[in-house]
Amino acid sequence: xxxxxxxxxxxxxxxxxxxxxxxxxxxxxxxxxxxxxxxxxxxxxxxxxxxxxxxxxxxxxxxxxxxxxxxxxxxxxxxxxxxxxxxxxxxxxxxxxxxxxxxxxxxxxxxxxxxxxxxxxxxxxxxxxxxxxxxxxxxxxxxxxxxxxxxxxxxxxxxxxxxxxxxxxxxxxxxxxxxxxxxxxxxxxxxxxxxxxxxxxxxxxxxxxxxxxxxxxxxxxxxxxxxxxxxxxxxxxxxxxxxxxxxxxxxxxxxxxxxxxxxxxxxxxxxxxxxxxxxxxxxxxxxxxxxxxxxxxxxxxxxxxxxxxxxxxxxxxxxxxxxxxxxxxx
Amino acid sequence: xxxxxxxxxxxxxxxxxxxxxxxxxxxxxxxxxxxxxxxxxxxxxxxxxxxxxxxxxxxxxxxxxxxxxx
Lengths: 330, 70
Hints:
Oligomer: heterodimer
Order of helices and strands of chain A: HEEEEEEEEEHHHHHH
Radius of gyration of chain B: 18 Å
Low-confidence stretches of chain B: 15-21
Low-confidence stretches of chain A: none
């Protein structure tokens, strides 16, 4: 069974893709209407996402740790409820949170008639029913957090292929054999396929979250420069007619290119001197901070391994085809 | 391969222009269903990209088969 890793690749991609698309987001509150309250009788409508509101939800307002309990709660359906409050005058902060059974909407209500504070109500906290295996639900990202399992593995696959290429380049220099040189360039070709997919999927995700296809983010520019460095590798190879000279020159360039890849994708974006929109870069918190129970990782790691194996498989096919073509040429 | 790179360069170059205007249809598509459509488009791009690679591999093998027949 020497093909076991190909089956593993398919199995990992299948499970990671299904889980990546099917696991629901954690319930959260997405809308509160109206958006301001004044002292007196107030009824607010709360809209949830992936919530399953049932009779008996506990709703209260919270302003600077002082609470106003709901006088009545009416559940309309699983994602909508209305709650009535008897709002007193004299709350301290001008933004009031709405809390429904443990879910909080920060600063939902602009508050009028501020003062020195109110008598805090003794409201019951309440908890939503356990929602099982869920991904974090974050503002701005929402469902697009699933792209973590599709966009990021592209880069892992690319880096693995470029690393394979560098190993072949070192072997070229060590043995002076053209055979390894061919494998090095084939790995770069497949690596650039994943690089292109990473750039395009990244641009689309950026449009959906950051608002533009391309920003001057340090990691984006690093990735673009890396792509250009490897394109220059192909141009360099094409410009040297002598096969042995080309192999040695390309191998040395490739080693430098890989060092630059590591610098541009891992070292420079993590310097605190630069700003980055990417999680985990430029002083940003990584996704692992939002995902305390590691549920994203349980899907992310299989996805990364699956895409790396698929990339190696693609390299394997291309390399074997190139070998055959060489034999035909003779 | 070349097509993919061209496409990605095209996106990079058009980004500067895209920043100012906010086309409504794009927002409606990408932001739909709690931004789930952004995920579906990304998955679609990846499948199409791998498919394109398979197509080129197919052509490469076909050329070799033709040469072997000669």
